[in-house]
Design goal:
The chain contains one helix and seven strands. It is of the alpha+beta class. The strands form two sheets. Strands 3-2-5-6 form a four-stranded antiparallel beta sheet, with no helix packed on it. A three-stranded mixed beta sheet has the order 4-1-7, with no helix packed on it. The relative contact order is 0.26.
Length: 114
């Protein structure tokens, strides 16, 4: 009986840990746009997991130009992401970049898009 109790406790802890890892983390995304930020008008971000599942999309509008750095709060499940970014400029052709982001818990994560 004692052994059965220990097994049940281990199973409960394992299941709880698995759900805790899937729970989205509140993160601050520190976005760096570089020296041409004042001419940046729109940023479209797509957060894709390794299995090609799009977890989150985020559109940022900067009518008067973006700051050199900007910070946005969002929630993402822990794990690795490919972050695709489409940047629309005032007087330049649109550009796209891709960055890797590894979310391992709550906190601030830097994403340089310059």
């Amino acid at each position: 009986m004692r052994r059965l109790g220990a097994v049940i406790v281990i199973l409960v802890v394992a299941v709880a840990a698995r759900f805790a890892l899937r729970r989205p983390a509140s993160i601050d995304l520190d976005l760096g746009y570089g020296p041409r930020a004042a001419t940046l008008r729109e940023v479209d971000l797509v957060f894709t997991r390794a299995d090609d599942h799009v977890e989150r999309e985020l559109k940022l509008l900067y009518a008067a130009g973006a700051p050199g750095r900007d910070r946005k709060s969002l929630r993402l499940p822990r794990g690795g992401y490919s972050v695709g970014a489409r940047l629309s400029w005032q007087a330049r052709p649109e550009t796209t970049v891709s960055r890797h982001l590894e979310v391992d818990g709550e906190g601030t994560y830097t994403l340089d898009l310059d």
